[in-house]
Amino acid sequence: MKITSSAVSLNVDDVAASSGFLIKHFGFREAMAADGFASLTRDDAGMNVVFLRRGLETLPADQRDDHARGLILAFVVDDLEGELARLQAEGVPITMPLTVEEWGERAFQVRDPNGVIVQLVDWNGAV
């Protein structure tokens, strides 16, 4: 098997709201879109983020009404404090403050308008 690209696909109620959030605050751009669907990309992300409207009939029946709860979109960044300051200046509520884990991970979290958790991470903490 050869994998040529990767994506994470999340079911949300308002595709435009989640897409707009990643576009505005995280520099993604729309690669494809249709009614109830948007695929977002960044040249440096290593994967696309796809949003699907809950209830979309093209989804299998046992997935249609699922919501992206409990999932975390985690992005490793070079300047964690700078990104934290930028998002705060843009008025994005920080839903988990900057934390340092004993294994060296440092992270903070925000949520998009559909409740999808976006976590920014670096590995500069004490190990």
UniProtKB/TrEMBL annotation:
Domain VOC: 2-123
SUPFAM superfamilies from the UniProt entry: Glyoxalase/Bleomycin resistance protein/Dihydroxybiphenyl dioxygenase
N-terminal signal peptide: none
Name listed for the protein in its UniProt record: VOC family protein
